Amino acid sequence: LSAVRYTGVSGAPFRQEQHRRTVPPGQEETVTMTVAYAEYGPHVGDQDALKLTVAGAVEETGQVVAKELRVRLHAPELTLTLLGPAVVGQETPVQVVFQNPLPETLSGATLRMEGAGISCPKPFQM
User: Quick check: 60 pLDDT over 80?
Assistant: First the structure.
């Protein structure tokens, strides 16, 4: 398991597992992997993905199979709601909602609102 930058460059693997199974004819075998944020969080940035590469080998035939899965990490959404009428030349109240999806406290978060007629956007400390 490794991080993939938005440029497509893979980082060093941060988790590797090896499983050995005997699979009877006509049967399938399932291996489940859970990756906690605490494990992958330090390795990914804003626009990165996770790359899982699986390779298998059949002892009896020497056949090798491989598959790669890229998982794009979705950023949480901001919800914007207009709380009153938008009238030219008057202030317009807007509500911004952000829910922290992470299992840890976020600190130092800043919202910056920009738009037509806002000459100098000011950051709002959360």
Answer: yes
Contact 105, 111 (CB under 8 A): no
Average pLDDT value for residue range 69-73 = 92
Sign for the CA dihedral angle at 9, 43, 125, 95 comes to positive
Strands 2-4 and 78-82: unpaired
Is the pLDDT score of 9 beyond 70? Answer: yes
**CA–CA distance, 2 with 67 (Å, rounded to integer):** 14
- Both structure tokens of 21: 């199974």
Decide: 28 and 69 in contact? Cβ < 8 Å: no
Q: Please compute the mean of the pLDDT values over residues 30-52 and round it to a whole number.
A: 92
Flag whether pLDDT at 121 surpasses 70: no
Count Cβ neighbours within 10 Å for each residue of 87-116 and write b for 16 or more, e otherwise.
eeeeeeeeeeeeeeeeeeeeeeeeeeeeee
CA neighbor of 41 nearest in space, from 73, 77, 8, 71: 73
Residue 18 CB coordination number (10 Å) = 4
